[in-house]
Write a structure and sequence with these properties.
heterodimer; A: mainly alpha; MetI-like fold; 2 domains; 12 helices; elongated; B: alpha/beta; Rossmann fold; eight-stranded mixed β-sheet; five-stranded antiparallel β-sheet; 13 strands; globular
Chain lengths: 295, 325
């Protein structure tokens, strides 16, 4: 991971070529290189990088001459707000819509639910973002479309980011619901005289939602990718912006930290999803009550 | 004679399949008296399970033309929907497959507790107490621990007892049991049958027992209804019917029961009844059994449906051309 980001960043170009449009004299370039340690052989640079990481020093931005950590810390709240609200919106819209799609399958509202889902699935983030900006930002002027100053600024990015996730929640939940509905234990629940809604929400939706939640968890990875594009389109001052900005000027330390942090987040999410499986499904839980023998 | 607890007349069920409609049940009639155990027997596809599920109202759409009454009041509604099960007070069901019939992500106590809350209208501690009592009544040791367990933590026999506890939580007067012991090994099977017999004695419970096992029938049932091709072909008290089967199908079915008193290889029972049960998509004309019947008379059995069941003695009847002739 470290090697790939380190090498990849250096292969793609030199930050000074991008930062100074007018060009630099040989002396200026040498001076800057020395300041950031880029004049040393690559193995030595790599050793210094890893050594600094081990002591918790993530380096200084070449473009902005500020600690990398500070840059990301400033951008984090904006991205967190976006991610959390998109996730909440996904669950708030996706779960009822998924249940609707299953219960009313083959009928009008089921078709509507699936139509919404497929639309969200088929539409790339950036297309939806631009459509939303055109309609709500420019034509209707209801919502701001650029920047992150007020809560209203987050509405369009959140909707954009949630759209794809809603689509997959609806599709997966519908499939799971239909499968669970056919299972024997649902018949048992009905035979005990439980009311329809009780069976639907307490037995069918409950059992169906568990695998769906884990799938959604895995898609948080996609949510992170999406936030890169969306923050750029809506000019939200988040982590994605910081990262994309760093790519554009080959700001090595910022780039390296960004990739590393994303990799870490992906690992943590996957771990969290696995843990969620165990919470959700008692059959996977370890160290629980042992199998009872026939007495 | 006491009026029947459950009375079923002309119960038909049609399944919509990719190959067109299939008549799974074609006008079945049977009664269960209070406190009586009626066994529905027949081959796979005879309609015995379908009949039990339809009476319980958990079959989904497709039922028709029936008059189904519990204690004289009609419970039949042809428009049953998967998630809008009609509540059938006085009825409860024990299912065949204890592995899958319990919700895998809920603790046993929670599943049974839901039924207790529904039928007793109680909450909290009272539910827990009743669940524990029910599980103990099923002969489960350490009922409090079983209540905290998930279905996968229990053995097959324990799960089946938990399922029976769940059914008893509905305070039924009629228990419908669909092959309740088929998935269990034989020692556990005997104990579960003993439990059901005990419940009948202690609660005055009537049962509709669906089975293909004449051993189970002989052990626990009072009366038998033999089904073939979606209809009841013979009914009667267990001892009389097993000793002197009247319908050729019942005779063939009984002859197919493996016996321990025959020498190896002697009189292979398969000879008794050639062929397979009728394809419900294309039922044979006339009596449904005639293509496999050893005594069928051409011109009679293949020409029209068999007559209404002929009374053959106390509580006995069979639907056969030859008996009517």
């Amino acid at each position: 991971m470290l090697v790939v980001t380190f090498a990849g960043a250096r292969i793609s170009g030199n930050p000074f070529d991008y930062l100074y449009d007018d060009g630099l004299t040989a002396e200026q370039r040498a001076e800057l290189s020395a300041e950031f340690g880029l004049d040393r052989p690559l193995p030595a640079q790599f050793a210094a990088y890893v050594g600094a990481l081990a002591t918790g020093n993530f380096g200084v931005s070449i473009a902005q001459r500020r600690p990398v950590l500070d840059l990301y810390a400033e951008a984090l709240p904006s991205t967190l707000v976006l991610a959390v609200s998109a996730f909440a919106l996904t669950l708030a819209v996706g779960l009822p819509l998924g249940v609707l799609a299953a219960v009313r399958r083959g009928r009008f509202w089921g078709g509507v639910a699936m139509g919404v889902a497929f639309l969200g699935y088929a539409m790339p983030h950036f297309v939806l973002a631009i459509i939303l900006v055109l309609v709500f930002g420019l034509a209707l002027s209801w919502l701001p479309s650029v920047g992150g100053d007020t809560p209203w600024h987050y509405v369009l990015p959140t909707v954009t980011l949630a759209a794809g996730l809603v689509a997959s929640v609806v599709r997966f939940l519908r499939g799971e619901m239909l499968e669970v509905m056919g299972q024997d234990h649902v018949r048992t629940a009905r035979a005990t005289g439980l009311s329809g809604p009780r069976v639907l929400w307490g037995h069918v939706a409950r059992n169906a939602a568990l695998p769906v939640l884990t799938i959604v968890g895995l898609q948080l990875n996609g949510l992170i990718n999406g936030s890169l594009i969306i923050e750029t389109v809506f000019a939200l001052p988040g982590i994605g912006q910081t990262f994309v900005g760093a790519v554009q000027v080959r700001d090595y330390p910022v780039l390296q930290f960004g990739v590393m942090a994303y990799a870490l987040v992906v690992v943590v999410i996957n771990l969290g999803v696995d843990a969620l499986y165990a919470v959700a499904d008692p059959r996977i839980r370890r160290g629980g009550a042992t199998r009872m023998a026939e007495a | 004679m006491t009026p029947p607890l459950l009375s079923v007349r002309g119960l038909g069920v049609t399944f919509a399949t990719p190959f067109g409609p299939v008549r799974g049940l074609d006008g079945a009639d049977f009664d269960v008296a209070p406190g009586e155990i009626l066994a529905l027997v027949g081959e796979s596809g005879s309609g015995k399970s379908v009949a039990s599920l339809a009476v319980m109202g958990v079959l989904g759409p497709g039922g028709d033309g029936a008059r189904v009454q519990v204690e004289g009041s009609a419970i039949w509604d042809a428009k049953v929907d998967l998630l809008r099960a009609p509540h059938r007070p006085g009825l409860a069901m024990v299912f065949q497959e204890p592995m899958t019939a319990l919700n895998p992500v809920l603790r046993i106590g929670r599943t049974i507790g839901e039924a207790v809350a529904r039928h007793d209208g109680v909450r909290g501690e009272a539910v827990t107490a009743r669940v524990t009592t029910l599980l103990a009544e099923m002969g489960l040791p350490d009922p409090a621990r079983v209540a905290r367990a998930y279905p996968h933590e229990l053995s097959g026999g324990m799960r089946q007892r938990a399922l029976i506890a769940l059914a008893m939580a509905c305070r039924p007067r009629l228990l419908i049991a669909d092959e309740p012991t088929t998935a269990l090994d034989s020692t556990v099977q005997a104990r579960v049958l003993g439990l059901l017999a005990g419940l009948r004695r202690s609660h005055g419970l009537a049962m509709l027992l669906v089975t293909h096992d004449f051993g189970v029938v002989a052990q626990i049932a009072d009366r038998v209804a033999v089904m073939y091709g979606g209809r009841v072909v013979e009914t009667g008290p267990v001892a009389a019917l097993l000793a002197h089967p009247a319908h050729p199908y019942t005779r063939a079915l009984l002859a197919a029961v493996p016996r321990l008193d025959l020498a190896r290889g002697e009189a292979l029972p398969a000879e008794e009844m050639p062929g397979t049960p009728p394809d419900p998509r294309h039922p044979p004309p006339g009596c449904r059994f005639h293509p496999r019947c050893a005594v069928a008379r051409p011109g009679l059995c293949d020409s029209g449906p068999p007559p209404a069941p002929q009374a053959l003695g106390p509580g006995r009847a069979a639907a056969c051309h030859l008996l009517a002739a």
